[in-house]
């Protein structure tokens, strides 16, 4: 990490503004909005969502993310009466300053045309008040469709919906709470929201090159979504393409067990360090900055492993700065030199 | 194939069960595993010496190739097939709803062959378990006391008889049949362990569970002592397939069939004392049944977290355990290291450790051989002494392997 380039592009040099993104979660009643929100942000398991009742009006929640990003999540109850209310009386209140609209379609819906109609009017309201918002459409409950037909039905729906999306470039995802597809969708949505992400990514890349990692993943602390990742030329050859989602899923499930064991609430952090040394690879997951965990996949070898872990701890201060830029660290020069020397030993 | 190193190539996440269809006995001989078969033969030889008249004769028939056998019996619809599917075939518990009722005796070998993916695995012939035994799922509606049945073929080599009782149903008839069975078996096969699984207790409150257990125990003991059978080897377990209790019960059943259990336990006790572990389990990785544990009482939470931790390792190794290209490996073995990759690692077997935030409590996992893994829960704050602890674990693993080696040599 070159200190000079650092000072030029330092996030600390920009005036800091409150980064609050308004995220609207909308869709027909019973399409699974609250279920997915609970799984991603409140550490529910898929089975637990049966307990959830209908959302009345708007359920507001604030989710803290890295880089001073606070998601202002509006979970909007989807019953027709509420929908009409959003579109008429509360129109300006709901649709102004929207950063992201996530619209959930139920694949099993009987009356798809009517869903489309509602979607049209929501899009119209959005283009009126916040034309710069990004739109994501989730085709949900994909598990209910026969696997062979999934692709066709999904493509069908997506083309139809996209044709009704006006000027918005709606990004589609097929999701289900019963597998890792939900994590994939949300990880990409979050990925687009995180500020100074490109900077985090270049830093990850440099760290990865220094410690000779195969892959580095940055997880958000409580949702365990992959915020950013880097892979070496070898790491990119990994045949498992859905590995990020799967890792999120595996670790989140294990957090349920640990929380049963320790008695700590599910939302709190459960572990500080995990290391694995197998024949083909070694890996560690460490608590990294305030809001993140770092997972590093390495080739086997005791020296490589220990050096990499040490270096990651050293790099921690650097990333802490990017995570919550409010505090400017003073000893930046020291960290850089420390990182390179220990890599050489 | 090694489960810890390569994963089980099955996605647990989407819940699809693509394990094998229930299959007939597949003979799998492995050199590395201690086979219970041998042990059984030894026991039988000893029993024969002691009492030539009562010792069971080796049962005939191709299915009875001398593997110790677990016999699952009980009333129909009490959950026998569900138990064997969940424990030995990793079927998700809620899918057992769709199991057909069993019409014939189902003979299962404890082996798991992945159906799809990866030629790499197929070459190795699938995974197998440490425990080389058969599970016979016995249909509830069959009256095995029928003279057409060859009693010797059924009970001849039995390791344990597991009697499943549905706790949510009227169990009087089941108890009567169990008594009848035990009374019939006692004269000829007095060494058979009878394990009663009081099953489907997930829907019952704790108090009610204990009440039922007491009631069933009472009825069985009364009936047996009325008929002059005292101290019959009957044990009771409260089980459910929706939590870990069924694995725990099976662990206890299987531990009784392991002859050098005291040795293993002593080794684990030593390890716990020396390294400050609260609990140590020796797991069979595939079935997640524990073969041995230290002598402190087993608590469910620590068993759960240990067995789930194995899952985590297996799942992650499934993602990252792919075969790297040769050039890459060569470049890693070249300068500046100039060592073979095997020599760069301290321990050739899988090692893993997770440190919980709660009091920095470490949980350690260490592969013992192809089938077994040692999982330990440490005391708070013992992570700082990790180097010493790793050395202790190493020594223990060496001891365990030696213990298996000795039983093998005695063959």
Task: Describe the secondary structure blueprint for this structure.
The complex is a heterodimer of chains A (345) and B (411).
Chain A: H1 3-9, E1 19-27, H2 33-41, E2 58-64, E3 69-76, H3 80-87, H4 91-95, E4 98-106, H5 112-129, E5 134-140, H6 147-163, E6 171-174, H7 181-193, H8 197-211, E7 215-220, E8 226-231, H9 243-262, E9 271-277, E10 282-287, E11 292-298, H10 302-323, H11 332-344
Parallel strand pairs in A: 1-3, 1-4, 4-5, 5-6
Antiparallel strand pairs in A: 2-3, 7-8, 7-11, 9-10, 10-11
Helix pairs in contact in A: 7-9, 8-10, 10-11
Chain B: H1 3-6, H2 36-50, E1 69-74, H3 80-89, E2 106-109, E3 111-112, H4 119-124, E4 127-128, E5 134-137, H5 151-155, E6 158-166, H6 172-188, E7 193-199, H7 206-226, E8 234-238, H8 245-255, H9 261-275, E9 277-284, E10 290-293, H10 300-320, H11 326-333, H12 341-344, E11 351-356, E12 361-367, E13 372-378, H13 386-409
Parallel strand pairs in B: 1-5, 1-6, 6-7, 7-8
Antiparallel strand pairs in B: 2-5, 3-4, 9-10, 9-13, 11-12, 12-13
Helix pairs in contact in B: 6-7, 9-13
Description:
The complex is a heterodimer of chains A (345) and B (411). Chain A is of the alpha/beta class. Chain A has 2 domains: 3-10 and 196-344, Beta-Lactamase (2-Layer Sandwich); 17-193, P-loop containing nucleotide triphosphate hydrolases (Rossmann fold, 3-Layer(aba) Sandwich). Helix content of chain A is 43%, strand content 22%. With 411 residues, chain B is α/β, with parallel strands linked by helices. In chain B, 39% of the residues lie in helices and 17% in strands. Chain B contains 13 helices and 13 strands. Chain B has helices spanning 3-6, 36-50, 80-89, 119-124, 151-155, 172-188, 206-226, 245-255, 261-275, 300-320, 326-333, 341-344, 386-409; strands at 69-74, 106-109, 111-112, 127-128, 134-137, 158-166, 193-199, 234-238, 277-284, 290-293, 351-356, 361-367, 372-378. Chain B has a 6-stranded mixed beta sheet. At the A-B interface, α9, β9 and α10 of A face α1, α10 and β11 of B. Chain A: Residues 1-34, 323-345 are annotated as: Disordered. Chain A: InterPro entries: Gtr1_RagA (IPR006762), P-loop_NTPase (IPR027417), RagA/B (IPR039397). Chain A: Pfam families: Gtr1_RagA (PF04670).
